[in-house]
């Protein structure tokens, strides 16, 4: 055999690629879309991320994303681009809509640690209805006056009944009691109250969020969708500009050519996600489905009075078709899940199929199925709690949440300490005035009268929400939210969730490390 002829044995015997050390490094300074491009290249190139980023620019990233993201539908690429946003001076109502995103990460202003007296509030467009606008402003101004009064009175009440420990500094003592007082006075805050929030989301989550906001029935929320889309496409705020400009001044004095080169690197405009957000538009699937399902809910449930319901109702299993149809109607009514399910169970299979079809018939080729179709979870809690407490529970992302709209139909909660402080009558008067204004604004002729009326509803009023989760999440929420440092509102809800699970599955109760909410709480411990 000639010496230069290779056999199969020779080929196998060739030396393998030498081992290389594992390399781990953080990356900073790349635009979100460029970084997403570089990471996505792992599946299409043998280049390291350093090598990929070195040969990248915005134009190459845009071309790549236009091909693989929009034409081929590889949406996971957008999960690699994470963007930080500040959303400031929006109403609490709008904030709850913004954060209602399963893959959302962020923080909102706390009603416990911040005084909202100077926050201001949102005023919706009442068109030419000056009387409605005046009624709205008078009521919201009144609620803010009451918020201030109750904040001061409840602080005095808590201070009188909670002596300061000798080892505790006066400043810390007062700060802690003010936080507890805000826990009580926040019930007076209307949904119109301005708040601020920060979020860090992937471009994929952002696209879903913007599309959902643009499809909302409320003008303020739609406007927020437009502003988020604009912020993602325009130049971002660069925290390094001030220090970079000072350094450039010094460099300029030494070398104009070098200063120009440095300026191109340090002071260029960064656009967070101009390509990935280019096609974020209102979601016709959501809007058209909502219209049809609202009509179906009104037809099937409009004449049925809302039955009393417990704080937490752990629902039994039912056929999947019944769960789907019930959940679709739930989101578009104010009735409890159990009450709606009774109606759905009395329907024929064809009638249930029609409800389910209304939730899917408008789905486009690139639309994800609506959240209502995330069904089949073992633990499903129908919860009716105050709006303020709901905002805290709303932060749990490892469960599916299906929300009913804001209303005064379910009444309001009044904290026990309000009664003990002798302020129950004044509190009830404030709630009654808010309800009367909300009702009056609902029947006004403005195009968005129903939506506008929601802004005057205080956080004390109850909201219904369906939380669907697995066992691990039920255990987690029960343990975390019954902690003594938490707000008494969601502590009661979390404990009721635990009790419902323990009653149905007694052998599992021992695994819950809950705190008994009936035990007294040290107000000075956080």
Describe the structure concisely:
48% of the residues lie in helices and 9% in strands. The chain is an alpha+beta fold.
How would you describe this structure to a colleague?
It is a single chain. This protein has 526 residues and is an alpha+beta fold. The protein folds into three domains: 27-80, no CATH class; 84-235 and 277-281 and 413-456, Gyrase A, domain 2, CATH 3.30.1360; 284-411 and 460-511, Alpha-Beta Plaits, CATH 3.30.70. 48% of the residues lie in helices and 9% in strands. It contains 21 helices and seven strands. It has helices spanning 8-13, 32-40, 49-54, 58-71, 92-98, 130-161, 170-185, 203-214, 219-233, 241-254, 256-266, 284-301, 320-330, 337-345, 349-358, 387-393, 416-420, 424-442, 449-453, 471-481, 488-504, and strands at 82-91, 106-108, 194-202, 312-314, 379-386, 400-403, 462-469. The strands form two sheets. Strands 4-5-7-6 form a four-stranded antiparallel sheet. Strands 1-3-2 form a three-stranded antiparallel sheet. Helix 2 crosses helix 4 and helix 6 (130-161) runs antiparallel to helix 18 (424-442). It is globular and about 80 Å long. The model has no long low-confidence stretch (mean pLDDT 86).
Descriptive tags:
526 residues, alpha+beta, 3-stranded antiparallel beta sheet, 21 helices, 7 strands, 9% strand, globular
Strand runs, count: 7
Sheet with most strands: 4 strands, antiparallel
Number of domains: 3
CATH topology of the largest domain: Gyrase A, domain 2
Structural class, please? alpha+beta
Q: Helical stretch count? A: 21
Beta-strand percentage?
A: 5-15%
Mean pLDDT: 86
Contiguous low-pLDDT stretches (5 residues minimum) are none
Distance between the termini: 84 Å
Give the C-level CATH assignment of the largest domain: Alpha Beta
Radius of gyration: 28 Å
Shape: globular
CATH architecture of the largest domain: 2-Layer Sandwich
Helix share of residues?
A: 40-55%
Order of helices and strands: HHHHEHEHHEHHHHHEHHHEHEHHHEHH
Biggest sheet, strands in spatial order? 4-5-7-6
């Amino acid at each position: 055999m000639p010496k230069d002829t290779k056999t199969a044995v020779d080929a196998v015997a060739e030396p393998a690629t030498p081992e290389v050390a594992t390399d781990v490094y953080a990356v900073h300074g790349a635009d979100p879309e460029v970084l997403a491009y570089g990471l996505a290249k792992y599946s299409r190139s043998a280049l390291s991320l350093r090598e990929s980023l070195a040969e990248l620019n915005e134009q190459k990233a845009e071309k790549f994303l236009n091909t693989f993201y929009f034409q081929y539908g590889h949406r996971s690429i957008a999960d690699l681009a994470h963007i930080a946003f500040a959303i400031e001076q929006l109403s609490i109502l709008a904030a709850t809509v913004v954060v209602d995103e399963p893959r959302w990460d962020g923080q909102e202003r706390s009603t416990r640690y911040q005084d909202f007296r100077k926050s201001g509030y949102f005023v919706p467009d009442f068109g030419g209805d000056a009387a409605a606008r005046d009624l709205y402003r008078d009521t919201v101004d009144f609620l803010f006056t009451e918020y201030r009064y109750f904040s001061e009175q409840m602080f005095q009440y808590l201070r009188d009944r909670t002596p300061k420990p000798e080892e505790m500094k006066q400043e810390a003592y007062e700060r802690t009691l003010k936080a507890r007082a805000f826990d009580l006075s926040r019930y007076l805050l209307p949904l119109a109250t301005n708040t601020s929030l920060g979020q860090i989301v992937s471009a994929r989550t952002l696209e879903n969020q913007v599309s959902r906001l643009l499809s909302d029935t409320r003008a303020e929320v739609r406007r927020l969708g437009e502003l988020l889309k604009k912020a993602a496409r325009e130049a971002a705020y660069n925290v390094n500009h001030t220090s970079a400009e000072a350094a450039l001044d010094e460099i300029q004095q030494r070398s104009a050519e070098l200063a120009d080169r440095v300026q191109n690197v340090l002071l260029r405009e960064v656009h967070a996600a101009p390509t990935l957000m280019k096609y974020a538009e209102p979601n016709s699937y959501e809007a058209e489905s909502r219209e049809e399902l609202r009509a179906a809910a009104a037809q099937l449930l409009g004449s049925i009075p809302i039955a009393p319901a417990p704080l937490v109702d752990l629902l039994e299993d039912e056929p999947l078709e019944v769960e789907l149809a019930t959940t679709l109607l739930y989101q578009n009514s104010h009735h409890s899940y159990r009450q709606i399910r009774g109606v759905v169970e009395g329907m024929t299979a064809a009638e249930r199929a029609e409800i389910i079809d209304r939730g899917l018939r408008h789905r486009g080729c690139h639309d994800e199925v609506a959240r209502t179709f995330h069904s089949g979870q073992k633990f499903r809690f129908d919860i009716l709690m105050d709006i303020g407490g709901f905002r805290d529970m709303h932060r749990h992302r490892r469960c599916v949440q299906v929300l009913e709209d804001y209303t005064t139909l379910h009444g309001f909660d009044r904290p026990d300490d309000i009664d003990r402080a002798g302020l129950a009558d004044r509190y009830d008067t404030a709630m009654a005035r808010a309800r009367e204004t909300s009702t009056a604004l609902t029947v006004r002729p403005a195009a968005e009268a129903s939506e506008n009326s929601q802004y005057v509803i205080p956080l004390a009023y109850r909201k219904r929400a369906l939380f669907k989760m697995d066992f691990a999440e039920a255990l987690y929420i029960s343990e975390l939210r019954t902690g003594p440092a938490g707000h008494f509102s969601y502590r009661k809800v979390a404990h009721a969730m635990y009790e419902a699970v323990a009653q149905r599955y007694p052998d599992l109760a021992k695994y819950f490390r809950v705190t008994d909410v009936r035990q007294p709480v040290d107000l000075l411990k956080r």
